Amino acid sequence: MYGLVHRALQCFAQDIYGDALWDKVVAEAGHQLYEYEAMLPYPDDHLDDVLLALSDQLEKTPTQVLEDVGAYLVTHKRMETVRRLLRFGGTSFEEFLLSLDDLHDRVKLALPDLGLPQLEVEAHSGTSFSVLVKFDRPGFGAVLLGILRAMADDYGALVVLDLERSALGVEVIERVMVELFEAEFAADRGFGLVTEDTAT
After folding, report:
1. pTM tops 0.85, yes or no
2. Which residues belong to any copy of the Heme NO-binding domain (predicted)?
3. Which end of the chain is more exposed for a tag (fewer CB within 10 A), N or C?
4. What is the 8-class DSSP label of residue 3?
5. pLDDT along the chain (200 residues), means of 10
6. How far apart are alpha carbons 48 and 200 in whole angstroms?
7. 23 burial class (0-12, 13-18, 19+ CB within 10 angstroms)?
8. Phi and psi of 34, rounded to 5°?
């Protein structure tokens, strides 16, 4: 597996909790790798061990940590490019949600060798949706839950989210359920083609 997720866990731990905590995670995981490179391959067990060590240090479940990582990917200044990529999906939370069907292909255009989950959005009504996560490893559903929670806040939408897991043989099926109660509940954070750092 490419180190993008490993790197996300590392940046999350360092940015939110500091280098001292990351030092403890690295020691507990036992792989003697302090820095992960996003586009280098690493064994899958590295990801499992780092996630378990991080969960242990934070006294949270792996699912809770992954949800926090999802929110971090949208809300932290270091990850502004991720937020901007997602905001290109639409001018409202509903438009953004429906655009997730195409996210996998959009990312593939820029990073063709990167393995990312495929998302399948189903609209059950004008306010009720579900997002099916298709990936060879369980866990991304929790990351998506955190991303959607943060993006709803970004758009100013009031939503209720729930992660459902079911088993199909040895495969774990993850689906995020979305209920949109109010599209303009709070102020939208705003989005423009030019960032404040580059505006003149």
Report:
1. yes
2. 2-156
3. C
4. T
5. 83 96 94 84 88 96 96 92 85 92 72 72 93 86 95 95 84 91 76 52
6. 45
7. middle
8. -85, -35
